[in-house]
Amino acid sequence: MSRALLINDVAPDFEAETQLGPIKFSEYAKDSWVILFSHPRDFTPVCTTELARAAQLQEEFARRGVKMLALSCDDVESHNSWVQDVGAYGKTEVKYPIIADPERKIAKLYNMLPAADPGRDNMPFTVRSVFIIDSSRRIRAMVTYPAPIGRNFDELLRVVDALQTSDRLHCATPVDWKPGSRVIVPSNVPDALVQKHFADGLEVVDLPSKKSYLRYGSTSPS
After folding, report:
1. Which PROSITE patterns does the protein's record reference (predicted)?
2. What is the CATH number that goes with domain 170-217?
């Protein structure tokens, strides 16, 4: 049994059919970030709302250099019909590919299957997995929901913002961080980078331990 994927692993490459034609993941990703998100099956209510929201936010993700890539366990013919429902529901157009994975090959490759769920025809349906993959094809974040629970795509957008801000400024983000809010500057960040990115200086939080490890710096969205 192969090991589960971990943060910082290289995202496995694959070839697949989609409603927009065949793709090879590495060629689709190229130098972009990618959000790969899975769905149990077509023509289900939760999935329809999620795909619609993803389509509504596609331009926001694109501004951040992020491509969308969905997966569902039905075939291309089913996807072609389903996207009509998704577009009508969300008053939008699905312009990103939806992988057809009826044999669960990619779902298995990315550990998207639940521990015990025979599903239809004794084939398990995928859970709602999300992989945020950076431009070097490293997995930077993973989120998994059970099949009945819809995801929050605004939160996924926030996670992308946090990751890209962290990369750009060599910082971390505190609880409930939003773009434009102050960030945490770890104590191991070199002084030269602190001066470069946080010219207004740092706020060191006074804690009972008297240790100066919690430092905030002001920034703005990129």
Report:
1. THIOREDOXIN_2
2. 3.30.1020.10
